[in-house]
Write the structure tokens for this entry.
Amino acid sequence: VPELPDVEVLRRYCEATSLHQEVRSVRVNSRLILGETSPSDLQTGLQGRTFEDTERHGKYLLVELDNGRWLVMHFGMTGSLKYVSKADRKPENTELLFAFSNGSRLAYLTTRKLGEIRLVGDAEVFIEEKDLGPDVLDSSFDFEAFQRAIAGRRAMIKSTLMNQQIMAGIGNVYSDEILFQAGIYPRTPVDELSGKAKKKVFHTMQDVLRTAIDNQADPEDFPETYIIPHRHKEGTCPRCGGEVKQVEVSGRGAYYCPRRQGKEAN
Ligand SMILES: [Zn+2]
């Protein structure tokens, strides 16, 4: 599931491969990923345009066009991007294909028809309309801003970290890693966290997300102390060797180490 680190890696990939090439055509295999934009809107809006710049907000990749409009991409559960040269075959699971006038193509791949691609006039307005909170790695989202964002909340810390309206970018996988590294039980209500614990969550959040990005969001390259590769039944804690347990948080499974993260699951 593409979360902030995965989308940041895709953003850098898009930036490194696909800028400043004229879009010749857009082929859409699936209407389901387009949200409010129709395939012909996408074709008309992109033909003859170039991608000029990229940004990311939470789990959204935003691509600025040469006419000032924006292509917005969300990767749903399994979405990804693949750039191929003229000689290469279209990648498997391509749901949408941007063909450039130099013959190369950028494919949006997904094995499930979830996600979103659309054109918008203004990135800021889009973020506002989506009611997205600040991107958690934005320089303005410092500890003060984090504290303000979670102040007075009684929801569990894990679901608060995953609430895109409070802060954008974290999902089920990285919230587990952040709370594991911080040593905090995922079901702890936010208003029961001490000031010290909040500080710990904030700094661990930044550290975990940056470490993931530095390692191309590939769990195989993550530090050996990370729980992400052990988030499964019969997983063992990479720090104490104990059993990794699962507990429910807002209908999702949270993986955690009972020894490191306080309470036993009820
Ligand atoms: Zn442990």
In short: The pocket of zinc ion is lined by residues 237, 239-240, 242, 257, 259-260 (CB under 6 Å). The CA atoms of residues 79 and 149 lie 29 Å apart. The first strand starts at residue 23 and ends at 28. The longest helix spans residues 195-214.
